[in-house]
Specification:
The protein is an alpha+beta fold. A 6-stranded antiparallel sheet has the order 2-9-4-7-10-11. β5 and β6 form a beta hairpin. The longest helix is centred in the last third of the chain and has 19 residues. The chain is globular.
Length: about 290
């Protein structure tokens, strides 16, 4: 197997800069899969058929696509795929802003913004209504010459996006190596247990005991707080770890499946294909095709 690595991009931002804005009209995507330390908001227009890869998320986009990425190790790429557009419009913003709790962004007016930035460690894809809400502001951004006003304008874009419901995480938490977080102690205890024991059998009754609830009450409680039932949550976590191993290791498909909690190879293949749209071997092959030797 050819060893391949993700490009670690050194962006245009210098130590004194806050924003780097690039607006392009082009006919194709050619830049390889990469990651970088700074955050990125990427808007793509008129490029249906382009394949967007963010971590273990692999999707073909439509006419409009807007993604926020704040995970420094989260690889991503927009590939030409089946796109035949002659007028692709792309706006990429790299930004270096400290949104941590002990800055001004930890204060009450910025709570939704800070929450969005945390969620975007897995990559966030915004729905059409959110894209249309900020579309005029995005198109104006590159024409603002004053750095202060450009920053305030961009901050307004981020804030407006943080108020829009329906933003969808792309990579799984286990693949993106995002720490488990929750506003419920009981949910947090259960998530931490699953994160540490995903390779073993996990029973509903045991999770209910950890939460101090009956199985039926816990099932409703967990679905309410996570949006998924316990079985789906466990499968998604196992698939995230498996996807990361398919990319980063040379272990066999069977070894990866067993080490991530799937009890047999056929079950692993079936569930992987159902969730990811391809087999584990196809995922590994397709992912390596997007990488370049450095």
């Amino acid at each position: 197997m050819i060893e391949s690595k993700v490009i670690h991009e050194i962006t245009q931002l210098t130590g004194k800069d806050v924003l780097y804005i690039a607006e392009r009209r082009k006919k194709e995507f050619t830049y390889p899969i990469h990651n970088h330390q700074v955050f990125e908001l990427n808007f793509v227009e008129h490029a249906p058929g382009v394949r967007r890869i963010v971590g273990d998320s692999n999707e073909v986009i439509g006419d409009y696509d807007l993604v926020l990425i704040t995970g420094p190790d989260l690889e991503h790429v927009w590939e030409q795929n089946d796109c035949t557009s002659e007028d692709i419009h792309e706006i990429t913003v790299h930004f270096d802003i400290d949104f941590s709790e002990d800055t001004i962004f930890g204060r009450n007016p910025f709570r939704s913004l800070q929450k969005m930035m945390n969620e975007a460690q897995k990559g966030l894809s915004f729905p059409m209504n959110a894209i249309m809400k900020v579309y005029p502001m995005l198109c104006k951004l590159s024409s603002i010459k004053d750095g202060f006003y450009a920053f305030m304008h961009f901050l307004t874009i981020l804030y407006e996006l943080s108020l829009c419901p329906g933003a969808r995480p792309l990579a799984t938490s286990s693949y993106a190596k995002v720490e488990v977080a929750s506003d419920s102690r009981r949910v947090l205890k259960v998530k931490n247990y699953i994160n540490q024991n995903y390779m073993n059998e996990i029973r509903l009754a045991d999770m209910a005991d950890i939460a101090g609830m009956s199985p039926s009450a816990f099932s409703r409680f967990f679905k309410l707080h996570t949006g998924r039932n316990l079985t789906d949550y466990i499968i998604d976590m196992r698939l995230g770890y498996a996807s990361r191993m398919l990319v980063d290791s040379t272990h066999s498909i069977a070894e990866i499946g067993y080490s991530c909690g799937f009890n047999n190879l056929s079950n692993f293949n079936r569930i992987f294909r159902k969730k990811k749209g391809c087999s584990p071997s196809e995922f590994r092959e397709n992912y390596h095709k997007t990488r370049v030797i450095v």
